[in-house]
Amino acid sequence: MKTKKVAFLSMCIALSMILSYFESLIPPLVAVPGVKVGLPNLVMVFMLYKIGPFETATVSIIRVILVGMLFGSPLSMIYSLAGAALSLLGMILLKKTGLFAPITVSVAGGILHNIGQIVTACIVMSTSQIAYYLPVLLITGTVAGVIIGYVAGLILKRLDKMKL
Amino acid sequence: MKKRDIILIASILIVAAALFLVVELTKKDGAGVVVKVDGKEVAQYSLSENATYELNGGTNILVIEDGKAYLSDANCPDKLCVHQGKISRTGEVITCLPNKLTVTVFGAQESIDLVS
Fold this sequence. Notes:
The complex is a heterodimer. Chain A is an all-alpha fold. Chain A has helices at 3-25, 40-50, 53-71, 74-97, 102-124, 134-158. Chain A has a single domain, classed as Arp2/3 complex 21 kDa subunit ARPC3 (Orthogonal Bundle), CATH 1.10.1760.20. Chain A is built from 6 helices and no strands. The model of chain A has no long low-confidence stretch (mean pLDDT 88). In chain B, a hairpin with a 2-residue loop joins strand 1 (32-37) and strand 2. Chain B is 23% helix and 35% strand. Chain B is α+β, with helices and mostly antiparallel strands.
């Protein structure tokens, strides 16, 4: 791996960590646990298109572990890992088909993140009642995905000439 | 952004709306609420009598009024559970993540060990 790439990937980890922290400062908009914009996903969508799936997955997992250790708890880390893993898998597969725009890939990431967290919550709290939030989270996940995907599209367009 | 992007996003929203409808239509009037802290059941209250209860040693205040349950106060800063409003139909749930507390409505058939 080139030094330049190492530095760039480190910067991506730092950026996604800052976005995670920044997002935790925003007061919740809707009274449902799990509703958020998913700002770190901006970095992931960008990386998926600009660099590659392997690097994106690595940066995402490292981010979850570091953010969990710094600001979270072991429990919050498990939630984040499940959400991030499912979201990444979906986004990588959808992007690989080559049929969809960044907005759609980001929407898939948003809702799969929520689905992953709900499934984890059902297992952790050993109750299926949390699935009650699923319809609401599908809608907010879609809205968040559209916003993130739109911004990621803008960034990709502006940084089109950047060589890595 | 092409046509198939819009189709995919629209179908996700339709599925979400359909799920929402299914959840709404299968709800029945609840008989009582069960309070769980950290996954363990700590209390059950009937929805038919008006009362105020201190939950979890006073971290959350549960009010039952006219067959509806809501949390009137909590010790956490964001008070998400208070903003979740009133619940009275089966399956509806109020969640307080900081105190690991849930209040869930159950129906008449499920209230096997409810002390009346």
